[in-house]
Design a protein that fits this description.
The complex is a heterodimer.
Chain A (H helix, E strand, L loop, with lengths): L1 E12 L8 H8 L8 E13 L11 H16 L2 E2 H4 L10 H16 L4 E11 L2 E5 L8
Parallel strand pairs in A: 1-3
Antiparallel strand pairs in A: 1-2, 2-4, 4-5
Chain B lengths: L1 E13 L8 H8 L8 E13 L11 H16 L2 E2 H4 L10 H19 L6 E10 L2 E6 L5
Parallel strand pairs in B: 1-3
Antiparallel strand pairs in B: 1-2, 2-4, 4-5
Classes of the chains: A alpha+beta, B alpha+beta.
Chain lengths: 141, 144
């Protein structure tokens, strides 16, 4: 069974790689490379896979998941400039993919145990673009 | 592994009428969708691709390349058109959203390696909402 909790945060970012030229950054990232930054209302859906506890009937108490997401994600991310205020985005480009992976790394040790595991982190940058991250396993052909 | 999904919209008209069936049978089967002059929808198409991160960009899919491909193969030819009259494959099959999903998937798959010559990302699936209540999904590996 998969259960999902959704949270939202607002943050600004710049997508540019300092090792590439201005022209190359503009080509790769388009308007997201604007050096002054811009922002999004990000929506995050965190999904856990597991069996319900036989006593509580829950995979994980969603109140507890909400508290974990608030502490590990919303408090560091919300209303921040990701590149300047939220490591590792001082050295990693804060693309939607890298945000999904960072959220996975922050919460995976807090939610996975013998009975349940983190299944997916979905991050919507806008309603028209979202990324699902399923962990570090390599891509199969 | 990352899966990146991009959402697109186009508006088009269609009429569901199977030439192998009689008029009465078509009316019974398709109901309102068989009205003789056709009708339209705001189709919402989600295209999902999967792959590893590119080290330089921190992205798994170059969305500008995906947008170009989808515009060329889907949004420009299908947008504001009559699917039955203007899209060749719907002269042969009924433009249900099932068949529309197959056609969109076939077009993207056929042109995928030219748009993404590096081997990654791979096309994973297409999801079409004909209306907010009717949704159709096909995996790229379900068709040739």
């Amino acid at each position: 069974m998969v259960i999902t909790r959704k949270v939202e945060f607002s943050a600004s970012h710049i997508c540019r790689n300092p090792q590439l030229s201005e022209e190359e950054n503009r080509r790769l990232f388009g308007p997201s490379a604007n050096p002054h930054g811009h922002g999004h209302n990000y929506v995050v859906e965190v999904s856990l896979a597991g069996d319900p506890d036989p006593v509580t009937g829950m995979v994980l108490d969603l109140k507890e998941l909400k508290e974990i997401l608030t502490r590990e994600v919303l408090e560091p991310y919300d209303h921040r400039f990701l590149n300047y205020e939220v490591p590792p985005f001082d050295r990693v480009v804060p693309t939607t993919e890298n945000i999904a992976r960072d959220i996975w790394r922050r919460i995976e040790p807090r939610v996975s145990d013998g009975r349940r595991r983190l299944h997916a982190v979905r991050v919507y940058e806008t309603a028209d673009l979202y990324v699902d991250y399923f962990g570090e396993e390599p891509c199969s052909a | 592994m990352f899966r990146v999904t991009r959402r697109y919209e186009f508006a088009a008209s269609h009429r569901l009428d199977a030439p192998q069936l009689g008029a009465e049978e078509n009316r019974r089967l398709y109901g309102k969708c068989n009205h003789p002059y056709g009708h339209g929808h705001n189709y919402v198409v989600e295209v999902s691709a999967r792959g590893p991160l590119d080290a330089a960009t921190g992205r798994a899919v170059d969305t500008a390349l995906l947008d170009d491909l989808v515009a060329r193969q889907v949004l420009v030819p299908f947008g504001h058109c009559n699917l039955n009259e203007e899209i060749d494959s719907f002269k042969r099959v009924v433009p249900t959203s099932e068949n529309l999903a197959v056609e969109i998937c076939r077009r993207l798959k056929a042109n995928w390696s030219a748009a993404f010559p590096g081997g990654w990302p791979k096309l994973e699936k297409i999801r079409i909402a004909e209306t907010a209540r009717n949704i159709f999904e096909i995996r790229a590996d379900e068709i040739e």
